[in-house]
Amino acid sequence: MFAQLVCRTRGGAVRGGQGTPQEFAEDTILPSRKPPVAIALESAVVAGASIAADAIDAGQGGKIVVWSDGSTSAFGTFSARGGLNGGDGGFVETSGHYLSVDGAVVSTAAFTGKAGNWLLDPVNITIDSSLANTIGNALVGGNVAISTAGNNTPSTVSGESGTTGDITINSALSWAAHTLTLTAAHNIIVNADMSGSLTSNGTLVLAGNTLTLTGSSSISALSMTGGALNVTAGTTTLTNAAISAGTLGLSGTGTLNMAGAWSNAGTFSVAAGTLNLGGTFTTAGLGTFSRTGGSVKLNGTLDNTGATLDIGGGGQFGVGGLSLLTGTIKNGTVLSNDGTMLGTNNNGVLDGVTLAGISFTNDGDLWINNGLTLANGLTANMYNWWNAWYFNGTGKHIATPGAATINLTGTSLLVGTICCSGGETLQIDS
């Protein structure tokens, strides 16, 4: 079977399984019988069949919709390309409560314009090796969106109360350009690598409620050489990420958790939401922050050896500075050039650190491991009278190479868990 609708200035539209008079009129296609057009319970495009809605000369690609209210099988070739001499790619939708597109060939490419879009809209979807290959091939020429949050959400499907609206990725996905958008009614679960070479226009948009990433070398061990990974909602955890270039974007209500041993030579772009810096990492491996909002919390272990970390708004963490320290900063120099307070929620740890600058204030208890050095001229303040510095480890001492001031304002310097107990001594060096 071959169906083709072409136009030199605009691609046509092919709709299988549904249609309204307005939609058919809009696309200059007349239904084969008077509306209302019945909604198909089953739609199928067999392997070897071709459907094209291409613009030929200059114009936008058309629309192809293969849709049913039950089972949709789309195994053929679908083309909605922009014109040779101008025009954006078109739109292909394959939609059904139960959807199978393994082996389909989809192109929404544009020769000179913007790439088009292919939408997969089932109730649930599990991406195995065959489907991963199909999606990867489609991403070569256009964008791909997978949604379990559209017309086929579990709540709209009769007899499907046991389904959850999940997108589950069980096989490696890779692409070099264009946008893969995942939108789930419930969870996006990635149990495999999602790598390849992301280029400057290769973008993964994650918009599920909760995203758990458990692959071994990408996303869960993210290998990113460019492009962008944007978290706009839900919770995303990246474990053992190695980012040599590109952008990790955070906006909306999203939460991005960094975990494991990770490094970033790219950019954290934070507009809203919460960025949790967990795991183990270095100051050099923080990357660059482009920040207009949101919160940045350090709950892992930062190795600051040989480096200077500015927790203020003009430092490494961008506008607003470090929002909260509940993890550990090891070694090096820590300062706050704009006076941003170090919030700790009574759990922050400084291990072998030098405090520098003109003024440094902590809000919440600080745990000091292996001594604390105060730079010459520093004034250290405790924001509330109930705040304390707890000295632990092998070196229970405060040192300064010159003159420094500690404003206790009713607070305490404590050795161990109880002040001055057990014969312990706090040593003050100059």
Kindly summarize this structure in a few lines.
The protein has 430 residues and is mostly beta strands.
Major beta sheet summary = 12 strands, parallel
Q: Helical region count?
A: 2
Number of strands: 45
**First-last Cα distance:** 88 Å
Proportion in β-strands: 35-45%
- What kind of oligomer do you see? single chain
Mean pLDDT: 79
Ranges where pLDDT stays below 50 over 5 or more residues in a row are 4-9, 17-35, 155-162, 196-202, 207-220, 417-423
- Name the shape in a single word: elongated
**Secondary structure: helix percent:** under 10%
What class, by secondary structure content? mainly beta
Instruction: Indicate the radius of gyration in whole angstroms.
Output: 28 Å
Question: Secondary-structure map with pairings?
Answer:
Elements: E1 2-4, E2 13-16, H1 21-26, E3 42-45, E4 50-52, E5 63-67, E6 71-74, E7 77-79, E8 91-95, E9 98-100, E10 105-107, E11 117-121, E12 125-127, H2 129-141, E13 143-147, E14 167-169, E15 173-174, E16 178-183, E17 187-190, E18 194-195, E19 202-206, E20 210-213, E21 223-231, E22 235-239, E23 242-250, E24 255-259, E25 263-264, E26 267-270, E27 274-277, E28 280-282, E29 288-291, E30 295-298, E31 301-303, E32 308-310, E33 324-325, E34 328-330, E35 333-335, E36 342-343, E37 348-355, E38 359-363, E39 366-374, E40 379-382, E41 388-392, E42 397-399, E43 405-407, E44 412-415, E45 427-429
Parallel strand pairs: 1-4, 2-5, 3-6, 4-7, 5-8, 6-9, 7-10, 8-11, 11-13, 12-14, 13-16, 14-17, 15-18, 16-19, 17-20, 19-21, 20-22, 21-23, 22-24, 23-25, 23-26, 24-27, 26-29, 27-30, 28-31, 30-33, 31-34, 32-35, 34-37, 35-37, 36-38, 37-39, 38-40, 39-41, 39-42, 40-43, 41-44, 42-45
